[in-house]
């Protein structure tokens, strides 16, 4: 229902100009993500923090607009394992798979023209649905800011390289954590490469 509602809002964006200014594009991307701790040990002999361990992500979506403002909707999928540790030592639990489905409505604004391409700023609320083994799925809200560098590949395709910083609620509930651990907001860095193309 969330996806259908967001898609309906996106489709209702008014037609303000003809041609390229109203072009629909299909977008795909592959991303690498680095999380900071989402469950931190606060004891004096701290073990570090729990976090999803370097998950990759695949995204697919639609965007609409031209060289000015654009509006888009992307769904990202990722799966990984939980890890515990700090920058010196990290233990990865192979029997603790976690998965994420993320809905990302986005507004993109031009910053700088670079030859035939451009540098654009991106702003996106996030709706995250996490699944942990043996637990009910849980929803978390957040946001993402970033920048995208795009270069045209002919008339219909564009290469994108995107970097972003995102935050959301912890994937854990209080009862998920061991004594001495506290929940932290999930912050993550993301680096992605992808393509957009006009049908």
Question: Can you characterise this structure?
Answer:
The protein has 199 residues and is mostly beta strands. It is 5% helix and 64% strand. The protein is built from one helix and eleven strands. The chain has one helix spanning 2-11; strands spanning 24-35, 39-41, 49-52, 56-65, 70-85, 90-114, 117-131, 138-153, 157-168, 181-183, 186-197. It has an eight-stranded antiparallel β-barrel with strand order 1-4-5-6-7-8-9-11. The radius of gyration is 19 Å and the shape is elongated.
| Strands side by side in the biggest sheet | 1-4-5-6-7-8-9-11
Largest sheet: 8 strands, antiparallel, barrel
Helix content: under 10%
H/I helix tally: 1
Radius of gyration: 19 Å
Shape by Cα distribution: elongated
Distance between the first and last residues' Cα: 26 Å
- Strand content bin: over 45%
In sequence order, what are the helices and strands, one letter per element?
HEEEEEEEEEEE
Derived structural class: mainly beta
Q: Give start-end ranges of low-pLDDT stretches.
A: 1-19
Find the count of extended strands (DSSP E, 2+ residues). 11
pLDDT averaged residue by residue: 82
Which descriptors would you attach to this protein?
199 residues, mainly beta, eight-stranded antiparallel barrel, 5% helix, 64% strand, disordered N terminus
């Amino acid at each position: 229902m969330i996806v259908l509602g967001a898609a309906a809002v996106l489709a209702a964006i008014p037609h303000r100009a003809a041609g390229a200014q109203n072009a629909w594009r299909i977008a795909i991307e592959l991303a690498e993500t680095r999380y900071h701790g989402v469950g931190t040990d606060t004891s004096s002999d701290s073990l570090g923090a729990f976090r999803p361990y370097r998950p990759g992500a695949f995204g697919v979506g639609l965007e609409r607009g031209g060289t000015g403002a654009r509006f888009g909707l992307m769904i990202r999928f990722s799966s990984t394992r939980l890890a515990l540790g700090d920058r010196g030592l990290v233990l990865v639990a192979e029997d603790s798979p976690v998965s994420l489905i993320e809905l990302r409505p986005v507004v993109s604004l031009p910053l700088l023209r670079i030859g035939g391409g451009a540098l654009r700023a991106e702003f996106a609320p996030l709706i995250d649905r996490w699944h942990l083994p043996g637990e009910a799925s849980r929803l978390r809200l957040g946001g993402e800011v970033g920048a995208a560098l795009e270069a045209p590949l002919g008339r219909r395709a564009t290469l994108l390289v995107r970097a972003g910083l995102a935050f959301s609620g912890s994937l854990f509930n209080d009862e998920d954590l061991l004594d001495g651990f506290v929940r932290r907001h999930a912050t993550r860095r993301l680096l992605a490469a992808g393509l957009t193309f006009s049908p």
